[in-house]
Request: fold
Amino acid sequence: SKVAFMFKCVSTLLVSATDILQFLLVIVYVYASLGIQLFGGVLYQHNDDLEGTEYNELNYFAFNFNDLLSSCALWFVNLLSEYNAAFADGVHAALPDSYKFTWLLFPMFYFSVVILAFELVSAFTIETFVALTGDEPHSEDEEELAEAKPKEEVLTGLSKLAYELRTEKQLIFHYTLSAAAEQARVYEIMFLQKAKDKKHEEHEEHGEEDKHGESEHEHKSEENLYEAPENATQADLDKLRLVKEVFEMGCEVKRLDAEKRKLREEAEVIAADTGPEQLNESKMNKVQRAAWILEDAVQGKCFSWYPESLAARRTFLLLRKREFLYDRAIFVIFVLGFFEVPLWCDCSATFRLIPGKIRCNVTDGGIVYLSGLPQIPPGFCLMIELACMIVIWLKLRAEKKLQSKFFDKRNVTYVSRNFHVACYLAMFVSLWDIWIFATLRPSSRMSPYMRVVFMFCIPAVNALFRALIGILNEWLSVVSFWMGTVLFFAWIGVTLLDDNVSINPANVRVNQGFDTFGRALYTMFVASSSDDFINCFNPTFLQNRAYGLLWIWCLFLSNFLFLNLILAMIFETYKERFEKEIRSFQRNQAQSLKKVFSMVATTAEGEDEPTVSREDFFALISALAESPKTPSLDKNSIEYVYKAIDVDNNNTLEASEFESVIDSIQKTFWITQKYSVAERYFPGLYDRLCIKQMKRWVWDKDDTDQSKLDNIMNVVLLANTAVVVAESYYDINHISTYNNLFTGIETVFGMVYIVEFFILILSMSWGEYVSSASRIFDCFTTWLLFGVSLLYYLPVANVQAGLMHYANILRLLRLVRVLKSLKRLSKVAFMFKCVSTLLVSATDILQFLLVIVYVYASLGIQLFGGVLYQHNDDLEGTEYNELNYFAFNFNDLLSSCALWFVNLLSEYNAAFADGVHAALPDSYKFTWLLFPMFYFSVVILAFELVSAFTIETFVALTGDEPHSEDEEELAEAKPKEEVLTGLSKLAYELRTEKQLIFHYTLSAAAEQARVYEIMFLQKAKDKKHEEHEEHGEEDKHGESEHEHKSEENLYEAPENATQADLDKLRLVKEVFEMGCEVKRLDAEKRKLREEAEVIAADTGPEQLNESKMNKVQRAAWILEDAVQGKCFSWYPESLAARRTFLLLRKREFLYDRAIFVIFVLGFFEVPLWCDCSATFRLIPGKIRCNVTDGGIVYLSGLPQIPPGFCLMIELACMIVIWLKLRAEKKLQSKFFDKRNVTYVSRNFHVACYLAMFVSLWDIWIFATLRPSSRMSPYMRVVFMFCIPAVNALFRALIGILNEWLSVVSFWMGTVLFFAWIGVTLLDDNVSINPANVRVNQGFDTFGRALYTMFVASSSDDFINCFNPTFLQNRAYGLLWIWCLFLSNFLFLNLILAMIFETYKERFEKEIRSFQRNQAQSLKKVFSMVATTAEGEDEPTVSREDFFALISALAESPKTPSLDKNSIEYVYKAIDVDNNN
Reply:
């Protein structure tokens, strides 16, 4: 099954992504043609301009712009490696100065193709996998079966026909589905099946599926009793309809009864859940016990039983206190690893503080790079570790006491035994290891791994670890296919190349990396898991371009297809498990709240429902606040919580109000004075008009929640931004002309910010001012920057110059305020929301990732500590040594973590593995396998989850607000809305009555739970809302719901109602509901009638006189358009129009082949930069295309057709295109224009005519003048864009351009920001680092800094961009980590998410439109060819009419060839009941 599923995934992907791949091919063709004209003949071996470039050093000469195939190969490499700077640098170096700007074609390709189009293919791979997990319709869902019925009937007919032929005539029946039909089927599965699958899952979760199926079956079987007999009169039919409606009402009553029974059963379950412990609450204070349950509920826990003694509660509180210390002990032992002396260093000086460079040195005089953190002596480390073990033991002891003394007797597991055993074992091993190390000083320890055990006991890390273990089976199935592909191509490679020891033109062995099977396997692994595939395959490709066909298939399957499938499988499986956990979390909270409410609620005299009194609530929250794990809640905070929940202000909490208690207790509340304290001491001053006006500037808000002071300061900030940009420009370029002017302007701006500060301080209290983090930041930057503006006046010149160098960095802080003001813009606000939500949602995964990296870093120190250092002879010749990666090593924990972090972002970096393998002794060389192990277990399994979470966050945030029209969603959101209402009301009262400002913050756990709910549980509701909106049912649904509720209120029971009254009222209510059901049925009938009228209108007035044209021919025309998803309101009535249409189809048949010919022709043409003088002579490409300086020019190896023959072929293709356009124009103008029906797009027509005339003009110009450039290649692209699939995708991508630009602008803004910081810090730093490289390499000017940051942010070459600075000072790593997180990871993933989600929405609409058009066309065709036979009520299509229709359809070249036998098989397949 796993193998079959994988093959199905691959085949379905090839079908679903056909249009995108076709579009991608056209775009690459455009860039390849443009590249030949711009860069043809500049990239060749022995070109002096290429000396010193990476292109020349890596021998990339086979990838060039010398002909079309080589150019396509170069762009294909750029597609897979995202952005390869070697090609852009090579072109830039080889071009003359006046043309150097054309290298910008490479960034343009990255933005327009790699980000925009190629990432869509990756997303399609993920979507295909997700869709294929549930592409079969569920038999229990009658609605889905009804939709699938026609296809199932066809399948049944074909199966029956095949069986008859096989058994009766010994013939085997075969059929294939057309590519278009198969693609339509796949799209339907991918885009339209999900809502149904979601509905099915929800039915299954609530256990309603079987009951639904049974009731549906009973309903249909009983409904058959009311079918009308053949001789029924109209009166009989009216009676039967009435009986049928009564029957349906009875079914509705049954359904209501079933729902009541279900509610009663749920109530009994809830009552049972509260347990028998409530029978005797006198043994323990109810409130204390309820507080315990409530605290567990906050964490999503719910146990069937809680102990009744106060001793248990005291033990629980003791455990909470020790957990508080335990969490800090875990943090301490985690951080301790970074400051410990590495085990390979000298640990003999137990309590002496010795620098790391003295402790950690090597015997051969090599230079060892450490992180630079101070090293704590081993003796102190052991003492700290021992103290942490004692804290851990105390916590474990309290857990054991609580479980064994109170819970074991009732067989309730409050503390996991497996968790307990693992922690005890880790603690004892750690204590043993401490003693061993203190006495013997061994070279390895177990403590680092035992610390990891404690980290895995952190709840979030433990939950994620269990989830990943749960998906291990699916992960292994896809990884095995990936590894099988790598093995297969390694075998092919070594079979072809192991004996080929020849030297290629770059003086490298052709079989480099393929001389043995082991090396071939590693080469294929590196090529399949990283962007280094070009270096792996370049030796063979340089020798023979035919090897490229083999490597393309390898890269497609391994580097693209299976890796994306792994990501899809991991995230989809993890997501399913996570959804279940969230639902379980919410169920546990709901059950616990009901328990707590039943324990503390009382029924007051004269009341029917129990409520929680004010005193009981205060006692409950006070008891809850005793635990260190709950937020600090003083008396005032409890008061605020109570007011927030008690919406109706009756000093009691009903059950519905009490449901909000968990949300409320997770908030932190505080109150500040509104106005300044100075107002109380100087009231006269504040009575003045200017002060009153100033206060209004601060407190009066406009519609955008901005005060007048805010608007003024925004203008000031924009002006200051312009000044900062200008000042930085002059500072970076060392222009000192306007220094005095800028200094004065800076001082003025500083004074303005200080005035703003004093206005705010005089208008509001200090507590209110510091309650906002943004105002605290503004205060800090105001005084700091004012101090910076005064640096110019310092008397000490050296100090002045040193501080002024960093003034630009400090000025950037002002730009943060500009960003804050930009948050009013919807796009900016949405992007900030995406980033903040992502940080919340991915916290658990990032925490888990940190622990895993810690594991590998600790293991790396013990295995490879002290082997990677400068001047190590074993590293000579390795890429690690040549690229000076010495700062990334295993010499201490921080350096080790930095190395694994680089491996995380660059997927797999072979330089590190090769360096370790070369430096280790022979007996330990096998340990390099730790690097592939890290790739499989962390990069593929865990890190890709973070990428998927980014995408899911973006998708979730596009619809995280509940739709007000959906009453069900509002009902579910009610508790939280009540809290919001209560808090808003409380804040309003305090502000207006007492001049106090009310503040609250939400806890991190609550915020994370809210985000998860949006991401995983909101989608089904959003989908349901979209479907309502699409069918135009939203308003009607809302109105009927409102009417239903308003009428239902008439039947509420009065307070003094007897049981008999209640029974009567229930009966009346059920009759009312039956009446509502009758209304609904009538509304559905009206809707069906309206749809029938619309369909009748769509068929048009042309049916009034079918005598003017053969109906069958016209129906065949409509049917042929229906196959392509087209439906027009009118078709011409003359046979001449049909003949013109068939002529057009024949010319389209030739047109398609002409387009293919001119596409292929480009690969065999003589490139324009070559010698095109010999018009009709066949001359080899190496003779035509040479350079004057004797360099070696690499071509693709394809034969070159002489220019004269190419022009003749091109001219013939233009004639074919003209004939097709002429037929289209005739059909449109002669038959459709008179009815204002657009059958052929005018824009399309104009574009093709223009391209054709430009091409003909270009042919004549080239035949006579032989210019060095032509327009024909671009005109060919116009014809390719007229291909329907390419054109549709192009229009879709144009439609999402706005969203794409919004995210890309943030990405580019990040690149600009860090480029600015980099050049400000480093432009003057010309010192040489230990690797003999300038520290500011790539950052000496702003232009170079911008390009360096662009390369680092768009490719895996970031390590080479940042290595010179990181090698000099590890502190730069903090800056680069933030840059990589924002640009290389966050915004690039957001771009992918935005592109695919927007494109997917548009595509779903197109598919639905396609299906609607097909349905309308089929109804038209049926109405045209069907007749009503004598004695029949319904029209049918006779056998003869059907044969005539399909025969007429077969006349078109665009339809499959259908002979008489084929038509017979089609008819038998459809005619299921065999009634002809």
